[in-house]
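Anyone opening a protein record will find just a pair of labelled lines. A complete record is shown below as an example.
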Amino acid sequence: MSKHILLIDDQPDLLRLMRMLLEDEHYQVSVLERGSEAVERVRENPPDLIVLDLRLPDASGVDILEGLRSQESTAEIPIIVYTAAPLAAESVANLIEGNPGRYGNTSVLQKPFELEALLGRVQQVLGVAPTL
């Protein structure tokens, strides 16, 4: 059975590219364009991995991260967060460093990034051997 990945971003073009890349690697991919629905959606249908943009127009990615980490049913789901904002990336990196027990399965990817870098991080987080 393939791993389920939830992508959360408000940019349809980026979502489409990430989805195509991951589906080509045989992952089951769901997308969510509204951050305000994220915590509830993850609780209802927990994925194996979440890829989360920290900058969403309707919700803070950091608030979503906090909401997911504060609930027992979603606290252990690996999350890759990404942003083009250096301060937001640094803020999350500080959260991870300051509380590795809570945020140890969270990683940060700085935008812009190559899609291959995202795929490599996904494979690393899910413990999947890279494809050749």
